[in-house]
Amino acid sequence: MISVKQARDIILGSIEALPQQIVYLEDALGRYLATDIVSNFDIPPCDNSAMDGYAVHCADVTEKGRLLKIAYELPAGSSPKGPFEKGASVKIMTGAPIPPGADAVIMREDTSEQAQYVTANKVPKIHQHIRFKGEDIKAGDTVLRKGSRIGPAQIGILASIRRILVPCHQRPVVAVLATGDEIADLDETLSQEKISSSNSYTLISLIREAGGIPLYLGVARDNRKDLAQKLSMAKKADLILTSGGVSMGDYDMVKDVMSQGGNSMEFWKVEMKPGRPLAFGTISNIPAIGLPGNPVSTMTSFYQFARPAVLKMMGAANLLLPVVCAKLVSEIKSKGDRPEYVRGMIEKKGPDLIVSPTGPQGSGILSSMARGNCFIVVSKDTTIVHEGDYIECEIFEGSW
Ligand code: AMP
Ligand code: MG
Q: Which atom of ligand 1 is nearest to the CA of 245?
């Protein structure tokens, strides 16, 4: 059986970033840059004041109590009237350009003003409270790297350097098909024999959270005809995700569909818990991941395989969940035959990050997933992790 890394490498090896697309700045949040971004501007564009106060020549204020004439006033957004004489000052507002010759700003709180004069109650240090031209960004600097995620700070930088049109990659359309004779969609009546299709809605949400565009195909019954008919609606998709129907049962038909006609199946089964039954191949030449049906297996496999695929299509440089080390609060036992992704809750306690399993770990127990924010990754061949041991955790709750 192949490892998680081998399986992910095969999947990622068979997909490419989607074509580039120019996106308006306001719509770029959550996209990934298709090129490096170079600034044509110095930010700030000129030396300016970081405080409301008085621009001075430091050499004039060698001791506190110095009385300085106010040569003129300089509000933000206006230009200096020119140099000012020795022994004088310019009353300046935050953001206004530093007048020629000034080499410090004394903040208002450290002064007292009386009729055209100001007393400096502190001796200024050279260059204090001046924001220098280009100290944040210099013209010619690469300010953002290709493949980086565009979050609010990146949007701010793009706005600062007047990049209204942002080069990104297209967002993938990801088809979602749930399968199962016992699976009822939200518009079907439930009975004792049926269960609600939670996977449809976790998958739609996971795709959205990763930045993809979900295309929901509903629930297919466990027969080739219905599967083929529903999958024929996926022709415009960039990626197909199915849930269920990839195990050993007589009615697990997704593998069959992948092995038929022009379709293909590259691998089936990955060494992991939960989520061993997983099929990857193509359906109508579209990459297709047959995710296992148990709700936690579906989600775990999505995070390990489908999320990286969606991110790669969007041009992201970083495809994996963030990993941190945390101190285990209670012992975990594992069979040691395959790596185990234990649902956990990580939190800060004093100087430590601590993590505890969130309860029953059956692959159908979605509530312990909902209580968690990370996977505690128990490596293969590990049969026990002791309380107090440090262990790697993959964070899946983005807002954590
Ligand atoms: P399967 O591999 O198709 O036998 O699915 C395994 C189990 O996953 C089923 O017995 C269901 O309990 C569960 N399951 C499959 N599909 C869904 C779904 N769409 N929503 C929630 N649970 C599901
Ligand atoms: Mg099934």
A: 3
Closest CA to 202 of 241, 165, 169: 241
Q: Which residue has the tokens 């001075």?
A: 56
Question: Could you read off the pLDDT of 282-325 as tens digits, one per residue?
Answer: 999 999 999 999 999 999 999 999 999 999 999 999 999 999 99
Atom of ligand 1 at shortest range from CA of 219: 19
**Among 363, 322, 324, CA closest to 346:** 324
Q: What is the pLDDT of residues 184-227, one digit of tens each?
A: 999 999 999 999 999 999 999 999 999 999 999 999 999 999 99
Is-above-0.85 flag for pTM?
yes
CATH of domain 21-40+145-168: 3.90.105.10
Nearest residue (by CA) to ligand 1, atom 12, is 294
What is the torsion angle, in degrees rounded to the nearest 10, for the CA atoms of residue 72, residue 74, residue 80 and residue 84? 30
* Tokens found for residue 259: 């092995």
Other residues' Cβ atoms within 10 Å of the Cβ of residue 101: 15
CATH code of 323-395, in short, is 2.40.340.10
With a 6 A CB cut-off, is 295 part of the ligand 1 pocket? yes
Q: Which residues pair with 332 in a beta bridge?
A: 385
Residue owning the nearest CA to atom 5 of ligand 1 = 293
Cβ–Cβ < 8 Å for 255, 191: no
Q: Is the CB of 243 under 6 A from ligand 1?
A: yes
Does CATH number 2.170.190.11 belong to domain 48-131? yes
CATH of 4-17+171-313, one of 3.90.79.10, 3.40.50.10490, 3.40.980.10, 3.40.50.10740: 3.40.980.10
Tell me how far apart the alpha carbons of residues 199 and 183 are, in angstroms, rounded to a whole number: 10
Note whether 76 and 32 are within 8 A (CB). no
**163 in Cβ contact with 174 (< 8 Å):** no
Testing ligand 1's pocket by substitution, the residue of 185, 199, 300 carrying the most ligand atoms inside 8 A of its CB is 199
Residue located via tokens 């020629």: 100
Report the C-alpha gap between 231 and 344 in whole angstroms.
35
Bridge partner residues of 383 (DSSP)? none
Contacts of 89 (CB under 8 A, 6+ apart): 54, 55, 56, 68, 69, 70, 71, 106, 118
Domain boundaries, the chain: 4-17+171-313, 21-40+145-168, 48-131, 323-395
Does the C-beta of 249 come closer than 6 Å to ligand 1?
A: yes
